[in-house]
Structures are given as structure tokens and as C-alpha cells.
């Protein structure tokens, strides 16, 4: 057990039986009242925001979280199988931990996974990935309006919007959080 005064931004706490990550932690000392800590925390599993006031001497449980680099190997039902780059040990990580980025993950890409006592609690995909376009409509001649986009299917099966000059077989860089086209990859 730790005291509330030991909490820092980014810590993972066991709060009301759930794991939460501290996003904002402010010490407040109102005029004639006792000092307290105002915390804004996000539930690790559901993503819900929780606000709470901790007394300065309140007992809290700071979870021991280990974060490491893993390589994504393959999909297995509702899980993604990843391998520890140091020990070559394999783990199943639920797809929902990756959020929207899961549809842009290709075998062999490196991801970051956080474990709390052998249970995966957070997964982070790289900020951007390079993927090949497996299908896109040919550009219509004369359609040169600036910023015109067309649909394209990536090698992972995800669909994104790309500029008209991008063709099937080319590689593009994609933002994994928004699914937006960033740039064409040369070579």
C-alpha cells in the first residue's frame, strides 16, 4: 500500500477493483479546508473517465505494470498472438486493447504491451505503418480537383481514402490512430 501523496501522472492504480491510469493529479489546498488531491483517471479496460478526490493520507494501491516490446505474429480468434523480443515467449492479447489500430497491424510489426501480473492491460500499436494497396479504383481522367480522394483496400483488408495518384501495388504510410493516409512510400 502507498499513500495518495506518492501518486504521479501516468501511474496505474487499482481503484474500486478496477485498473485506472492517472491522467491528471493536482494537489489542492483550499483556504480554510484540508488539502486534498484531485485526480482524473481513465479506466484501462473500458476507457471511462473517473474523477476522485484523495485525502493526502489515503491508502492507494499502485499496480506494478511491466511494459515491453513485442512482435505481432498472427491473429487467433479474438486475440492477437505476440512474441517477447527478448525471451521469444508468446502471449495472447485481446484485440480490443489495440482499439481502432488493430485493422492496420501486419505480421512482424513491433507493438508495446503492458502487463499487470501476467494479464495484458494495455496495447499500443506503432504511430504509423507502411502497407501495400491491394485494390484501388483507377483515377478518372480529368478529375484533378485538389484534395480529391478515392477508396483503397490495404493488404490487411482495411479500407482507407487515398489521393487519386496512388495506384494498386504501391505502398503507403497510414496513421494507425485515425486511419488517415500520410504519404506514399518510395522504393
Key structural traits:
mainly beta; OB fold (Dihydrolipoamide Acetyltransferase, E2P); six-stranded antiparallel beta sheet; five-stranded antiparallel beta sheet
Low-confidence stretches: none
Number of domains: 3
**Tell me, what is the CATH class of the largest domain?**
Mainly Beta
Beta strand %: over 45%
Question: Could you tell me the number of beta strands?
Answer: 16
Kindly report the CATH topology of the largest domain.
Answer: SH3 type barrels
Order of helices and strands: EEEEEEEEEEEEEEEE
Largest sheet: 6 strands, antiparallel
**Average residue pLDDT:** 90
Give the distance, in angstroms, between the N- and C-terminal Cα atoms.
Answer: 54 Å
Structural class: mainly beta
Shape: elongated
- Please name the CATH architecture of the largest domain: Roll
Radius of gyration: 22 Å
* Strands ordered across the widest β-sheet: 1-6-2-3-4-5
Q: Can you count the helices?
A: 0
The helix fraction, in percent, is: under 10%
Protein architecture, described:
This protein folds into three domains: about 1-60, SH3 type barrels (Roll); about 65-125, Beta Barrel (OB fold (Dihydrolipoamide Acetyltransferase, E2P)); about 130-185, OB fold (Dihydrolipoamide Acetyltransferase, E2P) (Beta Barrel), CATH 2.40.50.140. The termini are far apart. It is elongated and about 75 Å long. The model has no long low-confidence stretch (mean pLDDT about 90). It has strands spanning about 1-5, 10-15, 20-30, 35-45, 50-55, 60, 65-75, 80-85, 90-95, 110-115, 120-125, 130-135, 150-155, 160-165, 170-175, 180-185. It has about 190 residues and is an all-beta fold. It contains no helices and 16 strands. Strands 1-6-2-3-4-5 form a six-stranded antiparallel β-sheet, with no helix packed on it. A five-stranded antiparallel β-sheet has the order 9-8-7-10-11, with no helix packed on it. A five-stranded antiparallel β-sheet has the order 14-13-12-15-16, with no helix packed on it.
Amino acid at each position: 500500500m502507498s499513500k495518495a501523496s506518492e501518486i504521479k501522472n501516468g501511474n496505474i492504480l487499482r481503484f474500486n477493483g478496477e485498473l485506472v491510469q492517472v491522467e491528471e493529479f493536482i494537489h489542492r489546498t483550499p483556504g480554510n479546508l484540508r488539502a486534498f488531491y484531485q485526480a482524473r483517471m481513465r479506466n484501462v479496460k473500458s476507457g471511462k473517465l473517473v474523477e476522485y478526490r484523495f485525502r493526502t493520507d489515503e491508502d492507494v494501491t499502485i499496480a506494478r505494470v511491466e511494459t515491453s516490446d513485442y512482435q505481432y505474429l498472427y491473429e487467433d480468434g479474438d486475440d492477437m498472438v505476440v512474441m517477447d523480443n527478448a525471451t521469444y515467449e508468446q502471449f495472447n492479447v485481446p484485440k480490443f486493447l489495440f482499439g481502432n489500430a488493430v485493422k492496420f497491424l501486419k505480421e512482424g510489426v513491433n507493438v508495446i504491451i503492458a502487463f499487470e501480473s501476467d494479464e495484458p492491460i494495455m496495447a499500443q500499436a506503432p504511430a504509423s505503418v507502411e502497407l501495400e494497396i491491394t485494390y484501388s479504383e483507377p483515377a478518372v481522367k480529368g478529375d484533378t480537383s485538389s484534395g480529391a480522394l478515392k477508396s483503397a483496400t490495404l493488404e490487411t483488408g482495411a479500407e482507407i481514402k487515398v489521393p487519386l495518384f496512388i495506384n494498386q501495388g504501391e505502398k503507403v504510410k497510414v496513421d494507425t490512430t485515425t486511419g488517415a493516409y500520410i504519404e506514399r512510400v518510395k522504393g
